[in-house]
Structures
1.
Amino acid sequence: MSFLKVEDLYLYYRTRMGTLQAVDGVSFSIKKAESLALIGESGCGKSSLAKCLMRLLPRNVELFKGHIYLDGSDLMELSDEEFRKTIRWQRISMVPQAALNSLNPVIKVGEQVAEPLLIHKSIDKKEALERVRELFSLVGIPQAFMDRYPFELSGGMRQRVIIAMALIMNPEIVILDEPTSALDVLIQASIMNMLKRIKRESNLTFILITHDVSISSELADKVAVMYGGQIVELNDAESFYKSPLHPYSQKLMASVPSLREDKQPEYIPGAPVSLINPPKGCRFADRCPFRTEKCSEEPPLVSLKDGNYVRCWLYAR
Ligand SMILES: Nc1ncnc2c1ncn2[C@@H]1O[C@H](COP(=O)(O)OP(=O)(O)OP(=O)(O)O)[C@@H](O)[C@H]1O
Ligand code: SF4
Ligand SMILES: [Mg+2]
């Protein structure tokens, strides 16, 4: 039974150049406590998809439609007010991209993390700070840091505070949008280890957004590869990392440097497809080594097991 099921989701932006199709008919589902890695190059629509799930949309939205079922009920039927009161931060929360400098500089971090509890739950400050203390130990922040201001913390510690903020209301789904991309590799590794431990010890459902395939493999049970506003492959992590199916997924995997093999990492030739008036047919066609004439037509979604799929003519019967 899927816990989060997204069906035919669209998010288009109005721009001076025309309509930009950031999320264009995206569907996927995940089970409770499963982690989905959403990967793809810069500008393919990953953060836009996260914004749909959090309903944190900019003003220039031209189209926002589709279905987002959480535990069977369609969140798209909720009013903005209902969504804000019952879903955002409470059931689905997010560590936004590039949030490292978003903490309030004049409030101690312990109090900042406690704030939503004081506003939304009727508990007193002492109890709220106690909950923050527990959370700090879960995300690996020393207790003494409760009384520090953001500028007194390293980047890695600040990111842990932001992760604690996303967890404070006890959500069921946490979206992590490039949670480690601003950090050096050692700190990156320790944050990923902390997330893996939380995943093991809780039944949180994570959606990890990253352009870094090697980071995605740390947490993923399932992988969604996005290209040009669409999911081109949705697959179980094990199958995906062993033998990715979509030509773009294969290129992404081949671009990861390997320490063991004496092989140069490949790069993906060509430029990402424009999301304003994208070409008809397969959006990856310009860069695809397997392209045939057929590829100028819209590729089918070819079903794999467990509701997974690949969007490519190569696999069509
Ligand atoms: N508010 C907006 N108005 C117009 N275009 C936007 C807006 N927000 C994002 N875009 C465009 O939508 C496309 C998808 O952007 P998005 O931020 O979702 O990509 P991303 O995959 O998260 O990229 P990155 O890896 O760089 O974070 C890009 O072309 C981006 O320029
Ligand atoms: S549909 Fe054609 S162009 Fe697109 S990825 Fe598949 S083979 Fe390549
Ligand atoms: Mg992004």
2.
Amino acid sequence: MTEGAAKITIRDLEISFGANHVLRGVDLDLNAGKSLVVIGASGSGKSVLLKCILGILRPDRGSIVLDGENILRMSERQRMRKTAQIGMLFQGAALFDSLKVWENVAFRLLYGERKATKIARRRAIECLGKVGLAPEVGELFPSALSGGMQKRVALARAIAAGPDVLFFDEPTTGLDPITADVINSLIIEQVRALGATAISITHDMISARKIADEVAMIHEGRIVWRGSASDLDTTDNPMVRQFVEGRADGPIKMKMRKT
Ligand SMILES: Nc1ncnc2c1ncn2[C@@H]1O[C@H](COP(=O)(O)OP(=O)(O)O)[C@@H](O)[C@H]1O
Ligand SMILES: [Mg+2]
């Protein structure tokens, strides 16, 4: 796909969980080869949005067009084939504790593409190398790794099948600033190497500025602002200002349980 062509086009996307109307008409456009960072308060539906595109959650209405095809109109099987081109780094790394590191990295190759063990293992070790981890790490279980190493393994898993779209859900949350910077650099390097289109979710403004070509803010189920990373400093949008400056007072209110 040529750079600049529409890669992902989302229109009027809605999803509710019972009375909780989470996405209330999301419109989002992303061109091929671009890196978009999505910001927004906890619980605003950022992870839900990515899960809708991945096909893990089924939206109530709207369209998600990937490479010109609406994946919500596809059969389950067609959609799974289409979304298999997306690599995902899940919030909190989400590695399988009972599988060795290399098996985690090779998971999709082993169980999705049914590749031979030897081939999958070689590919896993190659991907671990791309994120700066030695082959021996592949033999360990995730519980033996530091938080930063777990995120690297999760990144290796996300890139293992050579995806052309990559999603990163809070890749640096819980890491110290130096390790976070290493992860951000690896993300940028791997997205470039694959020529991938990327959507990242982060609360961390340093990461957002580093990773993003563009930033979109989600609030009350809709995209309320979009701009370049440098616009974060100059916009007078009160919701973006509140978020960037980390203030409790402003248009974004935390939902508190009334006692
Ligand atoms: N599978 C689910 N079933 C019911 N509610 C869910 C589910 N997934 C997410 N939610 C709810 O949707 C809202 C948005 O969640 P999420 O997208 O995870 O927020 P965040 O923006 O922090 O990533 C939250 O209120 C959450 O409780
Ligand atoms: Mg989330």
